[in-house]
């Protein structure tokens, strides 16, 4: 039933989120109408929404889109008048931004960053009393790795050599297979790395990138901005957002039959927004598929530390492919990692890296050139990326407190995920797969026809209608499923599991009350 | 004479650096040959230099290009065997990276950054003995400005509100005209801001951007990557790299007659690589020109603190346009600022901002959307950008030491610029305009015919030939003029003024000896 609905609506879906981007073709009528109204003040401005890059216009990024603007306006209301609404504050569950919701940074990481930012501290005796011994030692090591100890200089365009050595060693330890520091490109978070790959691989809208649906909207935004074509493959909600090779094959063949040259496959593991953790066997099949079909495997592995299901384990695609005996000559694999996620959640530091393997030397040179145009990633983020891949070890002064901080955050996240998942599954018409990993739940909401009609009357997608209602009633910000893509005719939203543990019961109460009232209003 | 040579060669030049970029046209034969040779191993790789984005392939970024790769190889040689070459070390004069050559960071800035990175320090009594009172106070202010004091959270996509307030106040103080915090977009250095504007304004290679020649190669690289058309205007070397309105008009008309839609004018003031500081009257003419012609004025003002000529003063284009009575409805102006330059030279922190004024609300919304796809700039860079626009003031504990550090750096840079300029002007066949500002000298070298022939035999541009010889003989890295653009038939190189003062005499000696030998070898 779900499948046939999917097939029926797929062509519609392909015309919206997965629209083909033609630089020189006439703009489609729907888009054109909205452009006309946008530029209706027929201004004296030489730059208007009608004459900017249409790829910019088309690009959408739901996690910071309309719903967030609405939330910011409500927040301003509350600032001016704390009793303006029936809630006291806005709870941002729209984005994986742990520290904005009260998560504390890992002490050891911040100690090292402070010492590297102001290395004069390293020479002062008072420093011993303020910082852990191993943070001082680590800061010395890092400062010594920087040519001329110049922590304020541009680094090598791939990042400081010594830090890349550390990261490569960390990958080696994680995987049991060595990593090459020359394959590491340090970046300002994972997003610029994703953009770099899309820029490299996209020649025109005949170039396609296979992306999961639902997907993290960075991918659709980046593909649109670079003028490429998003080729969707659907995760199977019924099997816990399973990634089926048959679906990959079907979508690849379908795209090829339309003349699309499919360049790469994006896999997000653990899944965003879907939270599933892939089984190693499934990953082997994916590697085999990419090898056979000549696809670059773009592995978004930024949630590798966020695993909550005891029976699940993260396996990097690098480890999986190497354990199959595949090396640089067999598969092109790019793995993205970030300091923003994991137990550290250092989003604001904008640190991350990509491990780039399997490109021919001349293509790799082009990757380096594009990195060099942006000079280098920020050094604080670079240092932090090395720290997350090489945290304190047994015997280090910080080890026990570090493990306590890390363990506390991860076990609490697991509890929060479970509590929210249970609450969601208790709501009428809502089903929610388990968050085995990552930071999100992506419940399916079966909306009554009456609600769908009311949404249509407001020119809103039904899930966006639901999310706006939720926000206005409770101050809770979640993102409509339509921003991530979903099987047409189904409706979802993404909710982070990040509010602090003591806040969860109140959130559950508010959400439950809202949902009951919503259903009472719209039940068919 | 110079002008006629310019005209004669201009069409050739337009076919190389300023090549038009056609997504769907056949690749030109010269490029195609080099691609074929690059991919000659006819590899099993599904991604080759022949099937990646041709805009990536075409993009060039000289300041980190071939010459730097060569230098890095020499440095590896020296590491393996210190007597491998006739020099002991590589002196990187290729890039404006002050701290890599020994410039020390400003103490106050680093104190504040360390405290913000590890705010737990703010609560400890020992901190008083280690940090200045005003750095502690400033760090408190900043941490309090961050929602939830979450220094590790993603911020608003334009940057933290309180920091934007501080920056706007700093701009207001600098200009005598107010700035709006909502017009500030904090970015990871100025480069991503430039990319964002090129991405916004470029629909196809029929969209042109007027750029100075010589230019900082970020502009040509970014225009190429975004598929646009660089429309050159030539600075007049004979009048100290003067920017003539007649030249702007001529090039604009020429481009329009070819069907190019010119969207924007880039002005770099103080000039990079040319070091001139524009006179206020000249700037007024430029503003008038942009207003009349409906061009966005992209003002690269990252060297605003680097002024060495006592008779010169920096005026922001914002101040100039506002003093002419022009507001948001009259001119679209984007000013770029960076923490990487000035007296601070904090390149590795990747901080900066753009002040965006005059766009219609719907276009401004698109700028915001593109910023939001990248989430936010790194917080450390954001904080630093606020500090450079609001340094210690009279009466603050750090004020005197801050002024001493700043003054010491700027006066030393002025001395170094003068010493290198004099040395260059003493070389046979070399003339060098004064560096009134910025961080570079861009001497013209009149190369003997014999040298030009030798370069041709090596398939090298004559200035690149000279620079490679210089590097191999002395370890000094400078960038060939051809990477920046120059009047065809003239040859230059860019050399930073950044080696520490005590190193300058040795550099002058090495350079002079090399040049004499070179001329002896090739003199006609």
TrEMBL record, chains A, B:
EC numbers for this chain: 2.6.1.2
Superkingdom assignment: Eukaryota
Molecular functions per Gene Ontology: L-alanine:2-oxoglutarate aminotransferase activity; pyridoxal phosphate binding
Cofactor(s) of this protein: pyridoxal 5'-phosphate
InterPro entries for the chain: ALAT1/2-like (IPR045088), Aminotransferase_I/II_large (IPR004839), PyrdxlP-dep_Trfase (IPR015424), PyrdxlP-dep_Trfase_major (IPR015421), PyrdxlP-dep_Trfase_small (IPR015422)
Chain ranges of the Aminotransferase class I/classII large domain: 148-500
Pathway entry: Photosynthesis; C4 acid pathway; Amino-acid degradation; L-alanine degradation via transaminase pathway; pyruvate from L-alanine: step 1/1
Protein keywords: Aminotransferase, Pyridoxal phosphate, Transferase
SUPFAM superfamilies associated with the record: PLP-dependent transferases
Similarity annotation: Belongs to the class-I pyridoxal-phosphate-dependent aminotransferase family. Alanine aminotransferase subfamily.
Description of how the protein assembles with itself and partners: Homodimer.
Protein name: alanine transaminase
Provenance organism: Vicia faba (Broad bean)
Organism ancestry: Eukaryota, Viridiplantae, Streptophyta, Embryophyta, Tracheophyta
